[in-house]
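INTERNAL AUDIT FORM
Audit reference: QA-55
Scope: verify that the stored structure record matches its stored sequence.
Auditor: D.O.
Record contents follow.
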Amino acid sequence: MTGTTIAPTATPEAGLGARERARAYFLSDTRRCLQTALGILWLLDGLLQLQPFMYSAGFPAVLRANAAGQAGWLHASLIWGANLAQGHLTLFDTAFATIQVLIGLSLLYRPTVRLAILVSCGWAVVVWWFGEAFGMLLMTMAAPLTGAPGAVILYALIGLVVWPGQRPGGLLGVHGTRLAWAALWLLMAALWLMAPSSSPNSFTQAFDAAPSGMSWLSTVQYWAADATRGAGIPLALLLAAVSAVIAIAVYLNWKPKLFLTVSVVLNLAYWVLGQGFGGLFTGQGTDPNAGPLFILLALALYWLIPYPGDARADVVNSAAPANAQ
């Protein structure tokens, strides 16, 4: 009897070159593109945590500085965390970096995406508390221009939106994602009306205090500071109104692509001028700040347009392979 050879089942990546295989694995559909971008940002955060500054007394000092003026319970917890880190700096800082690198790698590896998102949500709360003091929201010092409400909480939110599966909007769903977006931008609108953002020279002061690390960036920030001198109140009122319109328009699905585009442009400006790329070029930045996260969240919302009910709504999701993560 002649034996029969059974050919192995072909995979979608079989016969593809390295570039095509990588594209199929990391960029197979919109959800996977967003997961990959989120993983890269987590990896970047982990690598930034390995900078020499993070192993010096300067890092606990930065953590301790967030405690100034905070409510008693938060002040005490922040001082406790800073002292704990300073007492075992090498151990804690290496652990922080390792956790963030592992979250990033796990987001890039399809089988562990769900676990990575769950861990990232828990870790984001820890960092938002001890590293960002809840974005300074509790002491009315938070400003959209400088990264409020804090970058790390946006990591968790985006993770929920890109949760693997066929449901648009991940764990939050379409309505939940739009609601979260609206809440964020209405918060930003309110923050523009607070004292840190609505004094005559608030923009000038923010641009002067922004991190840089590059001569051309310092020059651009200087120009922006000079151009906005004395104009802080009308600019804050304008941006408060624009932020509220962005929140409501996207939530109501009224010209959402236009207002998501406006949000991306605004956050690019905030990221460059007010956040100085998160201090990435100073040797002291721990993350790229909120600008890129707001942009990634806007792209996630853009992906959900048109919404379920429209004949075109499921095109993006149905295009994903059955095993897409």
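Auditor finding: record pair retrieved intact. The chain has one domain: 28-317.
Action required: none
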